[in-house]
TrEMBL record:
Domain of life: Bacteria
Source species taxonomy: Bacteria, Bacillati, Actinomycetota, Actinomycetes, Mycobacteriales
Pfam families hit by this protein: YchJ_M-like
Originating species: Rhodococcus globerulus
Matches recorded under PANTHER family: ADENYLATE CYCLASE-ASSOCIATED CAP C-TERMINAL DOMAIN-CONTAINING PROTEIN, UPF0225 PROTEIN SCO1677
Family recorded in the similarity comment: Belongs to the UPF0225 family.
This protein's name: UPF0225 protein R3Q16_27735
YchJ-like middle NTF2-like domain ranges (all copies): 36-130
Stretch forming the signal peptide: none
InterPro entries: NTF2-like_dom_sf (IPR032710), YchJ-like (IPR023006), YchJ-like_M (IPR048469)
Length: 133
């Protein structure tokens, strides 16, 4: 079952400075597909922040998608930094995005540093897997 916060005029968690509706919301709602691997990375971060498990599963490569996905409602995603991208454009079939995602969990603060791999299948970008470092 999906636990999802509504898409509103709030600033998009992905850090572009646009509202959710004008940024990642169009991907989460299913009206558009992310045009690049970085855009998919940003929209997936937003989905984690908004607890949209349906979008996360929908954008996960079927060969690597977990059977279940339980997000912790006490973990808050507080910022995203894109560190580098390789390939992942409109004309590529694969891409890599290195990022740092900041979070809080109660009084604990931390970050997740990952180098994520993406594949474009039938014109849609999908998250394949990543190396946490």
């Amino acid at each position: 079952m999906t636990s999802r916060r509504p898409i509103t005029a709030q600033l998009c968690p992905c850090g572009t400075g646009n509202s959710v509706a004008d940024c990642c919301g169009k991907y989460l709602e299913g009206g558009a597909s992310a045009p690049t691997a970085e855009t998919l990375m940003r929209s997936r971060y937003t989905a984690f922040a908004l607890m949209d498990t349906d979008y996360l599963k929908r954008t996960w490569h079927p060969d690597h998608r977990p059977a279940t996905l339980d997000l912790d409602p006490h973990q808050r995603w507080t910022g995203l930094e894109i560190l580098s991208t390789e390939r992942g454009s409109l004309f590529d079939s694969d891409g890599t995005v290195e990022f740092r995602a900041h979070y809080s969990y109660g009084t604990e603060r931390g970050n997740l540093h990952e180098r994520s791999r993406f594949a474009r299948i039938d014109g849609r970008w999908l998250y394949v897997d990543g190396d946490i470092g």
